[in-house]
Design goal:
This protein folds into two domains: about 90 residues, no CATH class; about 60 residues, no CATH class. It is built from eight helices and no strands. It comes from Araneus ventricosus (Orbweaver spider). This is HAT C-terminal dimerisation domain-containing protein.
Length: about 160
């Protein structure tokens, strides 16, 4: 609970002055409500929602601050925004017949640029980057040759099944 309260304070969702009160209310809640109520051992998520259960057992004057914090935790978004954002980035960089390795490479570049906080226009092109780009075609052609050799070797091997 200390970790949760500290995280809420860092996110500025809970005032630091209320921190000790919330921790005391939590200890009191555990000692007097959670351990003594049979509702906790009989709780079933199929029959009752978690938020309703905590509302019934925690929304009292004795646990007012604790309930406010638990309510905030229950209302946190559990959405898939980061996953959806990744799909939209893939859609932006998508070109027909693009191989998986190229997708990965482009996503690495996009993620790096986003992590620096810069835009594409602010990236400084150095001599080393220029050299890598010039050699990229040769490396790619070697990769294709290696793939052809591997596939031809696999075809030449007899199948003893």
């Amino acid at each position: 609970m200390n970790h949760v309260v500290n995280s809420m304070i860092e996110a500025k969702h809970v005032d630091e002055n209320v921190c000790d009160v919330i921790l005391m209310e939590f200890e009191d809640y555990l000692d007097n409500v959670a351990l003594k109520h049979s509702d906790f051992s009989e709780f079933s998520p199929e029959n009752l929602r978690v938020d309703e259960f905590f509302y019934e057992t925690m929304n009292t004057n004795k646990s007012r601050n604790l309930w406010k914090m638990v309510e905030m935790l229950l209302l946190l978004s559990h959405g898939q925004a980061t996953v959806e954002k990744g799909f939209s980035i893939n859609k932006k960089v998508e070109v027909e017949n693009m191989k998986e390795l190229l997708y990965v490479s482009q996503r690495l570049i996009c993620n790096y640029i986003n992590s620096t906080g810069d835009s594409l226009h602010n990236i400084k092109i150095t001599n080393i980057m220029h050299t890598y780009v010039c050699n990229a075609r040769q490396i790619y052609m070697k990769y294709l040759e290696d793939q052809k050799m591997l596939s031809s070797q696999n075809k030449k091997r007899p199948n003893f099944r």
